[in-house]
Amino acid sequence: MAMRDIRVVGDPVLRTPCEPITDIDDRVKALVEDLLETVDHEGRAGLAANQIGVSLRAFSWNIEDEIGYVLNPRIVEVSEEEYQDGDEGCLSVPGLWFPTERAWYARVEGIDLDGKPVVVEGEELMARCLQHEVDHLDGMLYIDRLDKSQRKKAMRAIREML
Prior knowledge:
Shape: globular
Largest sheet: 5 strands, antiparallel
CATH superfamily: Peptide deformylase
CATH class: Alpha Beta
Oligomer: single chain
């Protein structure tokens, strides 16, 4: 296992949709170990594979003392009437937090390292994490979801950061 460096905004890997995992080989097993180790630090809620430079559909989470992972995740359900609008940040956009609307509840389906079906679901912070990480795997950053005025502030702050 290895603690991996986090790719930051501007790195093209963050804007490239990730490929599905078709073969669970040693490379994928090592990726999961790295995702779990790298997310296992205070202040880290989730980590997508492309954030550590690997364009495969996998992410890990660290929510309320539970650490886990899912391969080939896809969002299959979100609450349609209940939303949350709290500040959201991202390891790939370090130090910046902006109000981001997300569904209150989300459910993700995928597989584990044995190829068995996995369901991950939750409300509030877990739901935010699931939506955020699947966005990463689709080549999106949370700043893409900001309203126009907040996005303008975010882009200005990012330019100053780079």
